[in-house]
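Sample entry copied in:
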Amino acid sequence: MLNKELHLFQSHTNVGLTFSDHSIRMVRFKGNADDLSHLQFWEEWLKPGIVENGRIKDEQTFSDVLKTMVHALKVRHRKTFFAIPDAQLVLRQFDLPGILSDPDLQNYFFIEIGNKIQLPFEDAVFDFHVLERSATGTKVLLFAAPETMVRKYRKILDAAGLDPVNAEFSALGIDRWVQHFISGKPEDHRMYAQLEKETLNVAVFHGDTPLFIRQISLKDAENMQTEDSLLLNAATEVERMLNFYQYSLQKGSFQVSEIQLLGSPDTMNEFKTVLGEVVSVPVKLLQIDRERVQCPDDLDASFIPAIGLAMKGVTA
C-alpha cells in the first residue's frame, strides 16, 4: 500500500532524485537549504525511448546511467527521496457521506479502487489527504500510482546502491522549497508550471495541499514545431488549466492568484513573456537566491524539485 511506499505528507546527507522522459537529476544534500555551499548535483539527459510516459522501457541503460551518477556523487547507501513521474500519478477528490476516520478511508479505498473507483492502471499504491470532515460528509484527496512502476523504480534505485526511503512527486519538492524561503504565508492558490523540452507539468496548491496535478505533452506529431510555437502552445495549455481549476474544480469560487515558472534558464524568460501576454494572473520565475544560499555558480532552478525532495529528510 502507498502508506508504506509513498508518504506524501511526513547534519545528514540525503539524496534527492527526479525523473522525466528526458532526464535524471540527482542532488547530494547536506545540512539545510539555507546553505547550499556543500550541495553536489548531477544531470544526465536520456536518449529517446529509455523512459516513456514515466515508465522505464530500457532498464539496462537507465540503470547504467543511474549507477554512473551514484558513483560520481559518492552517494552509495544514502537515504534517497525520489519523485514518481507525474505522467503516472493520479489525483482525485472525493466527497463521501458521513464523518469517516482515516482507517475508514483506508478500507474504503482499498475495497473500491478497481471497483467503483476506476484508475488507468490495475494494481495501485495509494495515499490520501483529508481536506474536511463535517456533518455534511468527508472531503478527501486520493493520490495513486501503478504499484509495478513504483516497485521497479525502487528496485533499480536499490540495485544502483541507493537507499530509497520516500517517494513523492516533484511538485511537493518545489512547494517545500518555496515555503522554506518565503516570508509569511504563500499565495492562496498558486500554480507551478515546469516546462522541460516538450513536456509541461502543472500543479496547483492551496495552503500545504496539492489540489491539481497534470502533465501535458506538447509534442508535434509532424515534428515541425518551432520554439516560438512551443512556448505559445505551453502558454495556451496553462491558460486552459487555469480555467479548468477555477470553473470545474472550484466551481468559480476560487482562482489561481500566482504562477511560478520553472525550467531551462535558456527559455524561461521568453516563456514568462509569452505567458504574461496570454493570462491575467501574475507570472514569476522561480529562481535560486545565490547570495542567500551560497550555492555553486552553475546550479540552476531545474534542480529545485530534487533539492526540495531531499529537504524532507531534514524538515520533517
